[in-house]
Amino acid sequence: MQGKLFALNRRRRAGPFLAMTIVALFATNSLAVDDQQSFGERQLSQVLDDRPNMKGIVDANDFINEWVIRQFDSDCPKNRVLWDSHEPFSGRPAESQPAYGAALASIRVTSSKTISGRDEWLMLIFELYNLKNARDFEELYAKATSGKIDRKSFANECTALEFRAGVRTQMFFRCHPLPGATAESDPNYMAYLKGSGDFDYYQKTLDSQAPGEYDARDYYGKGFDSMQPGSIASWAARFNSHQ
User: Fold this and answer.
1) What's the predicted TM-score (pTM) here?
2) Are the C-beta atoms of residues 94 and 128 closer than 8 Å to each other?
3) Which of 155, 143, 109, 112 lies closest to 10 in space, CA to CA?
4) DSSP H/E element including 119
5) Measured in whole angstroms, how far is the alpha carbon of residue 151 from the centre of its chain?
6) How far is residue 227's CA from residue 243's CA, in Å, rounded to a whole number?
7) How far apart, in whole angstroms, are the C-alpha atoms of residue 195 and residue 217?
8) Residue 6 has pLDDT above 90, yes or no
9) Residues 72, 81: contact at Cβ < 8 Å?
10) Rg (CA), the chain
């Protein structure tokens, strides 16, 4: 796959306390009681209201629609996924945040007019798959903060997890394609369908990119740096100063 496809990355630990506080503050509207809809249905309905480019692409009874609802929903309330209508905090097209404390896991997808509705569907489903890697990411973060993994290994393993989410997204859309997609209007979606599912090939693609192009390994390398003792202490101090 092309390296730029994984610009759908999440902001994960640059500021967990601040991110969770913001998510919690805005959760009330999305959790409003509606006896006519399940939690998952309410989340998807809000997604479509907030990102109107996504409307009219997937029928209400389509498998894609039903699958997304199931991912948002859960028999256990604490395992639900919350739609967050704000722009991704990282400045990337999409991101997700795993559950933290009492705050639900959440997903954000950009409202940028440069992103097509089909590419927004792609990003939403990618992030739903990426959240399934949450426990593996948490284990890597624990190793990073305790000094049990070095910067390069951390970046490579995190990139491999996101690549796995990308491959699952690719297989999902190969089985359940979005109608009407074109390479011109929906470049990320079409590239996903054609991309390679081989991680070694993906790494070689990243190695051959021009300077300045997105590389997930650089992104996670910077994330590793932010989790070192000095950075963790600074975030803790900032959080405590707001208590």
Assistant:
1) 0.80
2) no
3) 109
4) helix 117-131
5) 22
6) 22
7) 19
8) no
9) yes
10) 18
